[in-house]
Design goal:
The complex is a heterodimer.
Chain A: E1 6-9, E2 12-15, E3 27-30, H1 33-39, H2 44-51, E4 57-71, E5 73-82, E6 87-88, E7 100-109, H3 117-126, H4 141-157, H5 186-192, E8 205-214, H6 217-222, E9 229-236, H7 239-256, E10 272-273, H8 277-312, E11 321-327, E12 329-336, E13 339-346, E14 348-350, E15 369-372, E16 380-385, H9 389-393, E17 396-398, H10 407-413, H11 416-425, E18 429-431, H12 435-440, H13 449-459, E19 462-475
Parallel strand pairs in A: 3-4, 18-19
Antiparallel strand pairs in A: 1-2, 2-3, 4-5, 5-13, 6-10, 7-9, 7-11, 8-9, 8-19, 12-13, 14-17, 15-16, 16-19
Chain B: E1 15-18, E2 30-32, H1 40-45, E3 50-55, E4 74-77, E5 94-95, E6 98-99, E7 102-106, E8 112-118, H2 121-136, E9 141-143, E10 149-154, H3 158-176, E11 178-188, E12 192-201, E13 211-212, E14 218-222, E15 225-233
Parallel strand pairs in B: 1-3
Antiparallel strand pairs in B: 2-9, 3-4, 5-6, 7-8, 8-15, 10-12, 11-12, 13-15, 14-15
Helix pairs in contact in B: 2-3
The chains are: A alpha+beta, B alpha+beta.
Chain lengths: 476, 234
């Protein structure tokens, strides 16, 4: 499909809703020329046009600068549907519900810690990685229900897996009140019962980093970041439990499309009015899976802290505080003027500005930390959300570098064992189950994260605060 | 004991290199083989079915020489041959004008897209299961066979049935820590599939498959049979 976008701003391109008869809103894509050219190589624009047909969608179907082809929604796609009758689409959130990232900060200077090999090695021993891997904790039905309903709050208050202050620095305080564990099938429960505290596979990782550069001293101080600081970034989600919730509800919604008189250009966009029984049940299940994901990142935080204590000697200055935790596969109910929208973010994160009352009190006047991991071996970024993001992108930002190349193509181009040596030559300690998996996540398979972040800043969505350089990678 | 296999051992027995597993004496193991044009399949199916299985020192080597193998292997007998997982090459093999089951992984930036071809619906679904197993497993593995399981899935149409089938296999793979490699589709219609499946234990699947999606999902008629396209979230 040939899609000709019109430039409407320095890094803003739009496509009229007249492009295809079934579009309900125009497209807005945030990119520079090179990123836009990369987007046109795959089918992400066609997928974004399909998103623009969803019943109840308002304003724009939005593509982030890291957008690439997915299934149903493109990865890096954002859409808001007007409540009460606009739709909610599980495919607009994805299978890994509340996949997200959490940044932990020590007060240590990275270079003062000495060789990081023992620390990364201990992390690899303490944290199960890989698809389908079980954790140390097997939850019975009652315990799983409490995790699903209580998320991080349950883990911190009842299981003592974290600090009370952690909750202040997690999106939605790590718990969505609309969760209903009763909406999960036995299949979903079985997949989740032994996966709390596991990293998973694919592009999930734990990275030990150093704050490499500060761009905004005031914001960095508010986020408790300083040059040379040792930090840890955790990227994981709701594991098999979340995958199954999506599978179960795509099935339900696909079968109810005729009842709701909805026709779609792609079955993976299966959806139902938010106010319908199917819509409410999915949202309640999605919230429960999101709580599981936040609890998972909390459990991993607990393990990372234990390792820091063990390896670095339980020093007070080895203590890790949560800078922030953002979801990047989720639907949230958010106010935009007089309206409440169901904002679908598929491979996109919130970027609330300084005036938002939904961000931690400490960050008001500064903006929400927007965490943007780079590809493996490249830098990650911390940005601060701007109020203008509300109008530009439904308060949303990109979620990473974004794939530019398939896994197959990456493996054809990169040899895992060579990449491992290159990373080690840069001083990065690597723990990855196989060279093949390493090659699939090679930096060459991703877009240039610095360019992506630059577009986010030029668009006025968020501003750069700090850059984080990887020192050690534990890959899922 | 020397640190190499006897020279010219492969002139006496077919030697089957294993990338990531060991077969012990008196063990019955199910092996998934990725075979190309090396002639190994012919060697295995001819003669008295006696072979030597031995681990290779470099897992990445595709056709290792004897020197690239460990010095101790196991003399074994092939008890039974299963269905080929994959046929290499761009063309559909034909058996009497009917498409032989095959699958290929097609380019997709973010996920895995599979094209599957077969002469009939039952073979198409079995081949889809084998494609999933190939993603989950190393090219060659050996493990004790798991118990056989019965599966029934239902859906409103055959495209949705394919997604249901794959998602059921993904669920069972994850919760049983195994990959299903043997499929006997005993009954199939556009809305229901009944099958008996068998798998091998897997501690660390090669590709993390989250789910089968309905994106771009198609099952179409083609000369000699059927062709399906399905995208998996990985």
């Amino acid at each position: 499909m040939q899609v000709q976008l019109q430039r409407t701003g320095e890094v803003t391109f739009e496509l009229s809703r007249d492009f295809r008869a079934d579009m309900r809103v125009p497209l807005r894509v945030l990119a520079d020329e090179l990123l836009l050219e990369q987007v046109t190589r795959d089918k992400s624009l066609e997928q974004l046009v399909n998103v623009a047909t969803l019943p109840g969608i308002t304003r724009f179907a939005i593509g982030m600068p890291d957008m690439h082809q997915g299934y149903g929604f493109p990865v890096g796609g954002v859409a808001g549907t007007m409540l009460p009758d606009g739709v909610i689409s599980p495919g607009g959130i994805g299978f890994d519900i509340n996949c997200g990232v959490r940044l932990l900060a020590s007060v240590l200077v990275a270079r003062s810690v000495g060789p990081l090999e023992p620390l990364v090695h201990e992390l690899s021993r303490a944290i199960p990685v890989g698809y389908g891997r079980s954790g140390r904790t097997v939850l019975d039905r009652g315990e799983l229900d409490r995790v699903l309903a209580g998320g991080c709050t349950y883990l911190v208050r009842d299981r003592k897996m974290g600090l009370t202050e952690d909750l202040d620095y997690i999106e939605s305080r790590g718990t969505l009140a609309d969760a209903d564990p009763g909406q999960l099938t036995d299949h979903a429960r079985q997949r989740g019962s032994d996966q709390l505290g596991t990293l998973g596979g694919g592009n999930h990782f734990i990275e030990v980093q150093e704050v490499d550069q500060i761009y905004d001293e005031r914001a960095a101080a508010a986020f408790r970041l300083f040059a040379g600081q040792l930090t840890v970034l955790i990227h994981t989600g709701s594991r098999g439990l979340g995958h199954q919730v999506c599978t179960d509800h795509v099935r339900v919604m696909d079968r109810a499309l005729a009842t709701h008189r909805i026709t779609l250009p792609d079955r993976q966009l299966a959806c139902a009015p938010f106010s319908s029984r199917e819509g409410k049940e999915y949202f309640a299940a999605m919230c429960a899976a999101a709580n599981f994901a936040w609890a998972n990142r909390q459990a991993l935080t607990h393990r990372v802290r234990e390792v820091f204590d063990r390896v670095l000697g339980a020093k007070e200055d080895a203590r890790l505080s949560v800078v922030y935790d953002v979801a990047h596969n989720i639907a949230k109910l958010e106010r935009f003027g007089e309206h409440t929208l169901c904002v679908h973010r598929k491979g996109a994160t919130r970027a609330f500005g300084p005036s938002s009352d939904e961000i931690p009190a400490r960050y008001r006047g500064v903006g929400q930390p927007v965490l943007i991991p780079g590809s493996m071996g490249t830098c990650s970024f911390v940005m601060a959300g701007e109020d203008a993001s509300k109008e530009i992108s439904l308060s949303s930002s990109c979620h990473g570098a974004g794939r530019a190349m398939s896994r197959h193509a990456a493996k054809a181009k990169v040899q895992g064992h060579v990449l491992r040596r290159e990373l080690e030559a840069k001083g990065i300690v690597v723990r990855c189950p196989s060279n093949e998996e390493l090659a699939e996540e090679a930096p060459v398979a991703y877009k240039d994260v610095e360019r992506v972040v630059d577009v986010v800043a030029r668009a006025g969505i968020a501003r750069k605060v700090a850059r984080l350089r990887p020192l050690g990678v534990l890959k899922g | 004991m020397t640190d190499a296999l006897p020279a010219r051992l492969d002139e006496i027995f077919p030697v089957l290199p294993l990338r990531s597993s060991i077969v012990f004496p008196r063990e019955i193991a199910q092996l998934i083989l990725a075979l190309d044009d090396s002639g190994m399949l012919d060697s295995l199916t001819e003669g008295d079915h006696r072979i030597v299985v031995v681990g290779q020192r470099d897992r990445k080597a595709d056709n290792p020489s004897l020197a690239q193998l460990y010095s101790i292997g196991t003399e074994s007998a092939v008890l039974r041959f299963g269905q080929p997982l994959r046929r290499v090459g761009p063309h559909v093999a034909r058996q009497g004008g009917v498409s032989a089951p095959m699958h290929v992984f097609e380019e997709h930036v973010g996920e895995v897209q599979i094209r599957i071809e077969a002469g009939n619906l039952a073979d198409l679904f079995a081949e889809a299961g084998r494609a999933l197993a190939e993603l989950q497993l190393d090219a060659a593995v050996g493990n004790a066979p798991r118990e056989i399981e019965d599966v029934i899935v239902r859906a409103p149409d055959r495209e949705a049935l394919l997604v249901e089938w794959l998602n059921e296999l993904i669920f069972r793979s994850e919760t049983r820590h195994c990959a299903f490699t043997a499929f006997d589709v005993t009954r199939i219609s556009d809305g229901e599939l009944q099958a008996r499946i068998g798998g091998v234990g897997v501690l660390h699947p090669r590709v993390a498959v989250k789910a089968a999606t309905m994106h771009g999902l198609r099952i179409e008629k083609q000369p000699g049979g059927l062709r399906a396209t399905v995208v998996l979230d990985v």
